[in-house]
Amino acid sequence: MVPATASGVDEAAGYLRHWLTDPFLSAIPVVAAVVGTDRDGVLDPLAQAAALTRLGVGAVAVRHDRHVAGGVGISLPLLLPENRLAAAELAAQVLSAANTTGTTGTATGPSTGASTRARQGVAW
Questions:
Q1: CA distance 25 to 69
Q2: DSSP the chain
Q3: Where is region (Disordered) located (predicted)?
Q4: What is the pLDDT of residues 19-64, one digit of tens each?
Q5: Whole-number percent of the chain with pLDDT over 70
Q6: For residue 100, what are the domain limits?
Q7: Domain tally, the chain
Q8: In percent, how much of the chain has pLDDT > 90?
């Protein structure tokens, strides 16, 4: 998650550049969600996601949404339509990255999402 602020995107870009040049980390795909932090934000999440994509990582823009900003459980019908599409795109990129890493994980029983992502080699 990257806030669509100047400092957030700049910090993420630096971190992702390092990620992509590190011999160990670069083998693990990364997908970033650039999130609009407020309705009147100066930076456009879509443009910032495009900038991160040019670095060579998957990135999806999620615009500011009053429903999500409220901090309560998310109800899909209350999300902005473009954010529902962004959520689907984010999920698709994560699954695609997980399926193209060449790792299959282990079948050791129930696990948390974090350990599943670690076995599959996906960072997000």
A1: 32
A2: -EESSHHHHHHHHHHHHHHHHSTTGGGS-BEEEEE--STT-SS-HHHHHHHHHHHTSEEEEE---HHHHTTS---GGGS-HHHHHHHHHHHHHHHHHHHHS-------S---HHHHHHHHT-B-
A3: 100-124
A4: 999 999 988 888 999 989 888 878 899 999 999 999 999 999 998 8
A5: 80
A6: 2-120
A7: 1
A8: 37
